[in-house]
Specification:
By secondary structure, this protein is α/β, with parallel strands linked by helices. Helix content is 30%, strand content 17%. The chain has three domains: 15-21 and 29-43 and 147-151 and 203-486, Rossmann fold, CATH 3.40.50.200; 48-142, no CATH class; 152-197, no CATH class.
Length: 493
């Protein structure tokens, strides 16, 4: 029986005056179990919440005390901070409930302070290298992040073209009445996608035993299972009652602290998180009527809900995500997978996430994040999304079943951070969805848990952790195209 732990919640945007997330108007696609999912970063421009994230540049308790003192002095904060370290990992709900209205929430594991300041207070905080050198802290605005699944509008255009091509071909081959008869036959999008998603005419294909992604990465048939490895997936939650996960070690928590959000449990109303967890840690052996689809099928699962379902999509504040990372590190997870992000804020990367990535590596954990889906190849490419653009976070691009870079996958533009490190299967990916169902999704979101699962398998095989594990997995990659598109290549055993 699954082991379910506390459904904690976490700090939202700026109290009651927080800017609400501007979500993409995506809707459920109805594609053989597919669920709604956002694009490469929500709105065209990054959306700030109104809070500030303060990264402590020094190490140890003295550096944190000095940073708290700096925030108090510059922003006029008088109240005592809430410290995550004073709450057990099984009491995230207690932390969230106390943290929502506090002026400072300290994530001790990461060396980060989430500051709930008004605009005048925020303006008093040091920003940039000069201010950091003098104060020992870096202040950055908090932004909203989104699940990085394939944009619905792009998929709809593809499907319409696919449908029209099929109807036209049938009409020319079978006679003038065939096209009309096909139009009236109620062919579903799932029917249209099934041949392509089975891998027809491509190098790898799904079959009754496993998905094409498991075959392409050499996972299918591997004796390694991820046993003894802890994998955290920070996303929209998890359907821990899915029958494919019976008997698994599952720990859940939620970090959605804003009382105005209705989706605050550890469950998954969106479906994106359940799909990603299935790819990283779902069953690998085929069950009755269901092919194997999970990479690290015996790893311990830690689901941190950092994205809340609102309207047509999901969103999560940087502070929620950082709290999830803090929790996963306190749980001593070996891998953290984040299929989420937002468009970068200029050419630099967020110090908050890079600091978290470095702390994770030093503690024996690798953070993996999706590169984003804002490209429209061959017409345009977009830079790697935040937080995947941080040097200390492993950035993952998507390839299709022919191992060509996916048309939507983002590309390295800024090389001081912003590079692609590895690629994973990200087109036509079959996995679990809520309610005991299964479905297909596309996106760097789907490539990322493939890589997370492979990290778990290599960790089990070699005993490596942190930086050594990161380097080992990159050294095994299959070289593909331009490294700006796929980095070291396809992650594989």
């Amino acid at each position: 029986m699954a082991k379910k732990k506390s459904s904690g919640r976490r700090n939202s945007g700026r109290r009651s005056s927080a800017a609400k997330p501007k979500l993409d108007p995506v809707s459920a696609a109805g594609l053989d179990g597919d669920i709604s999912h956002g694009g490469g970063g929500g709105a065209d421009a990054p959306q700030a919440t109104g809070r500030m994230i303060v990264t402590v540049l020094g190490e140890g308790e003295s550096a944190m005390k000095n940073a708290i003192k700096e925030v108090r002095k510059r922003a006029g904060v008088s109240s005592e901070p809430i410290r995550a370290s004073s709450f057990g990992t099984d009491d995230m709900q207690g932390l969230v409930e106390q943290a929502h209205d506090c002026e400072m929430l300290v994530l001790d594991e990461l060396g980060i302070i989430i500051a709930n300041l008004d605009p005048d207070q925020s303006a008093a905080m040091p920003v940039g290298a000069a201010g950091a050198a003098a104060s020992g802290v870096v202040s950055e605005p908090e932004y909203w992040c989104y699940p990085l699944g394939q944009p619905a509008d792009f998929r709809a255009d593809y499907l319409r073209g696919y449908r029209d091509a099929v109807n036209s071909l049938a009409g020319s081959l079978l006679g003038s009445g065939a096209e009309a008869s096909m139009e009236s036959a109620s062919v579903t999008t799932a029917d249209l996608l099934a041949p392509a998603r089975a891998g027809a005419s491509f190098g790898f294909r799904d079959d009754a035993s496993s998905t094409w992604g498991l075959k392409a990465t050499n996972v299918a048939g591997s004796s390694f299972s991820g046993r003894g490895i802890r994998v955290a997936i920070l996303d929209s939650g998890f359907d821990a009652n899915h029958p494919d996960f019976r008997g698994r070690s599952i720990t859940t928590a939620a970090f959605i602290s804003d009382p105005s959000q209705s989706d605050r449990s550890a469950g998954d109303l969106n479906g994106h998180g359940t799909h990603c967890i299935g790819t990283a840690c779902g069953p690998r052996d085929p069950r009755t009527g269901v092919r194997g689809y999970g990479v690290a099928h015996e790893a311990e699962i830690f689901s941190g809900k950092v994205l809340a379902q609102t309207g047509g999509g999901a969103s999560g504040a940087d502070g929620w995500i950082l709290a999830g990372i803090d929790w996963a590190l306190r749980q001593r997870c070996h891998v953290i997978s984040m299929s989420l992000g937002g468009r970068p804020t200029g050419s630099s990367y967020p110090q908050m996430y890079d600091n978290a990535g470095r702390k994770a590596l030093r503690g024996g954990c690798v953070i993996v994040a999706a590169a984003g889906n804002d490209s429209r190849r061959p017409h345009s490419t977009a830079p790697v999304s935040r937080p995947a653009n941080c040097p200390a976070i492993l950035s993952v691009a998507a390839v299709d079943s022919n191992l060509d870079v996916a048309s939507f996958s983002n590309r390295a533009v800024h090389m001081d951070g912003g590079e692609i490190n590895l690629a994973g299967p990200g087109v036509g990916v079959f996995s679990s969805t809520p309610g005991g169902r299964h479905g297909f999704l596309d996106g760097t979101s789907q490539a990322t848990p493939h890589v997370a699962g492979i990290l778990a398998l290599v960790a089990e095989e070699t005993g490596l952790t942190g930086v050594d594990l990161y380097k080992e997995v990159r050294s095994r990659a299959k070289r593909l195209t331009d490294p700006k598109d796929t980095g070291s290549g396809l992650a594989r055993l």
